[in-house]
UniProtKB/TrEMBL annotation:
InterPro entries: ACP_syn_III_C, ACP_syn_III_N, Thiolase-like
Gene3D superfamilies per record: 3.40.47.10
Protein name: 3-oxoacyl-ACP synthase
Entry keyword annotation includes Transferase: yes
A GO molecular function held by the record: 3-oxoacyl-[acyl-carrier-protein] synthase activity
Residues of the Beta-ketoacyl-[acyl-carrier-protein] synthase III C-terminal domain: 227-316
Span of domain Beta-ketoacyl-[acyl-carrier-protein] synthase III N-terminal: 106-184
Length: 322
């Protein structure tokens, strides 16, 4: 078996405020707040990079666990695929900075589903090859949102964070039980990118309806698929965590699975949507409640443009908790 030994999150110093978004877009502030659900969102400042924030999170994890760098056999960097530099490997750069010199380093691009996708790959690598795997989550979503384009309003809640997950074959706090994932490729062109003088930006591509229905159908089906794979039932779910992109979807999914809001984590009113790091933040905050019990089943729902969907089943292991 394998699972999450430890994790950490770091935030940039920069902030994007509703006032700034309103001035740039010309949209009413109240309309913007319906999307952001908070007054400001962490975003990369002009002198900040995603890879450095993810590196700092990783350094904290490695210092806390005391894991020998030589025992880390793979380093994965997950995100949208728009890195701080083109034609460059952030996974290799961070490994070098941290003194990890015997690992295979590579990137995983699946937008906001990339973190859980990378976790699945990491757990498979740890089980089959032994040793530890370092998963890094770093993205530049805040830099990709053009507040001057009012049609991108649904993305005004997107911000930036860096996080790190250490995966290992023993001593884990969360055992990785199963991951069920799939892509509804019919939504591939719903969002796209455009290269401008200041770099790439998101652009809304079409007015197709029904994305929220696609979210619910895929999440419910994948949740059931994950439960069937591990021989559990809906009544066994202790907690459900999800990317913080749409509060309504989260509430609807909880209801569909027969769960109460107390069985989840909501960060919308404080942070906005921190790409793949959302789920790491939610795991960290869930642990901080000090209510987790050994054997608790946690489902983690994730999604990303494309549109890809995933439900990951984790089991809390009290003896590995830090």
């Amino acid at each position: 078996m394998s699972g999450i030994v430890d994790l950490d999150v770091r935030f940039p110093r920069g902030r994007a405020t509703v006032e700034q978004m309103q001035r740039a877009s010309g949209l009413p502030a109240e309309e913007i707040r319906k999307i952001t659900l908070c007054e400001e969102i962490p975003v990369l400042g002009p002198d900040e990079t995603a890879w450095e924030i993810a590196r700092d999170a990783a350094a904290a994890v490695l210092d806390r666990t005391g894991v020998d760098r030589a025992g880390i056999r793979h380093v994965l960097y997950a995100g949208s695929g728009v890195w701080d530099r083109p034609a460059w490997s952030p996974a290799a750069k961070i490994a070098h900075e941290l003194g990890i010199d015997r690992a295979h380093c590579f990137e995983v691009g699946n937008f906001c589903n990339a973190g859980m996708t990378a976790l699945q790959i990491a757990c498979e690598k740890s089980r089959s090859h032994g040793g530890y795997v370092l998963v890094l989550l770093g993205d530049r979503l805040g830099r990709l949102v053009d507040y001057h384009d009012a049609t991108t309003l649904p993305l005004f809640n997107a911000g930036d964070a860096g996080s790190a997950i250490l995966v290992g074959p023993e001593g884990y706090a969360y055992r990785h039980l199963h991951a069920a994932m799939r892509t509804d490729a019919s939504w591939a062109d719903f969002w796209g990118g455009e290269q401008g003088p200041d770099g790439p930006s998101f652009r809304f591509q079409g007015g197709r309806k029904g994305l929220s229905t696609a979210y619910m159908e895929n999440f419910e089906a994948l949740a059931q698929q994950a439960l069937d794979a591990i021989g559990r039932k809906r009544g066994d779910i202790a907690y459900l965590l999800i990317n913080q992109g749409d509060r309504n979807i989260q509430s609807r999914l909880l209801t569909a699975l027969g769960l109460a809001e107390e069985q989840s984590v909501f960060t919308y009113g404080r942070l906005g949507h921190m790409a793949s790091s959302d789920t790491v933040i939610c795991l960290q905050e869930l642990a901080a409640r000090e209510r987790l019990r050994h054997g608790d089943l946690i489902l983690v729902a994730s999604s990303g443009m494309g549109f890809s969907f995933g439900v990951t089943a984790l089991e809390y292991c009290a003896e590995g908790a830090r």
